[in-house]
UniProtKB/TrEMBL annotation:
Residues 163-178, 190-200 have a biased composition (Low complexity). Residues 202-218 have a biased composition (Basic and acidic residues). It comes from Rhizodiscina lignyota. It comes from the Eukaryota. Residues 158-250 are annotated as: Disordered. This is Uncharacterized protein.
Length: 250
């Protein structure tokens, strides 16, 4: 009896292992597969929700910040132009009814309306250009997400081992919301967590995708595939030549 190998019966149906009549029992294999699927779904749902929130917040912040800068340049160009118009100061001082000859006043009003129309058109174009950047910006931020694995399996805290639970971290690089840790670059490396486009030069000095993947293989982590190049911000607006557009000389 002591020399015979003792094997536990099936934990689910109490079937004997390697039964000569019915063979091995599939209950434990099926139960394990189901448990793995449930654990994976729970883990993936949790992390995907956090990554989704982080990527969405970062992309929206980048797009709106870029648009705000473009809009401000449009407004500055508009302000410079209208203040250069003859009799504009009198027009404001008299609240739109200055004591001017009718043809002069009509020309000034036409110039102001044209400038307003051009400003609105430019702002619309800038916003459209920013919104069309969303796919590229989202792709960029998703490419910044990493999933790190421990170097070796760590026993769970239950079962008498008393060891801490494994800590798998999915870590985006910037603007991390509560509960999501940003990626940490090497000390003194100058790695920036700024959004793409506006700071593309800073990001361009960071490690290449191939180097990051090589470092990740050495450290036991795996980088989620995606674009590594920062998207380019929409082309800044050029100050419109208002006088020439509306047929008025400098």
């Amino acid at each position: 009896m002591a020399s015979r190998e003792i094997t536990a019966n099936c934990a689910i149906c109490n079937h004997r292992p390697k039964d000569p009549e019915s063979g091995d029992c599939p209950c434990e294999t099926k139960a394990l597969r189901k448990a793995i699927e449930q654990a994976e779904k729970k883990w993936l749902d949790s992390w995907m929700a956090r990554i989704h929130d982080w990527v969405t917040n970062a992309a929206v912040r980048y797009i709106t910040t870029t648009f705000a800068a473009l809009k401000q340049r449009r407004i500055q160009a508009y302000t410079t132009y209208v203040h250069s118009l003859p009799y504009y100061r009198e027009y404001r001082q008299w609240h739109g009814r200055p004591p001017l000859h009718a043809p002069v006043l009509a020309q000034l009003i036409s110039q102001l309306k044209g400038a307003d129309t051009d400003l609105q058109r430019g702002v619309n174009d800038d916003w459209r250009a920013c919104v069309l950047k969303y796919p590229e910006v989202l792709d960029y931020y998703y490419s910044q997400v990493e999933i790190s694995l421990p170097r070796g399996p760590v026993p769970p805290p239950f079962g008498g081992h008393g060891a801490p639970a494994p800590n798998n971290v999915a870590s985006p690089s910037a603007f991390a919301p509560p509960g999501v840790e940003p990626k940490k670059g090497k000390k003194g490396s100058g790695r920036s967590s700024a959004p793409p486009g506006a700071f593309a030069e800073e990001i361009g000095r960071s490690k290449s995708t191939r180097e990051r993947r090589r470092d990740s293989r050495d450290s036991g982590s795996y980088i989620v595939s995606g674009r590594g190049r920062a998207p380019v911000a929409p082309t800044p607006p050029v100050a419109p030549s208002y006088p020439y557009q509306f047929g008025i000389g400098p």
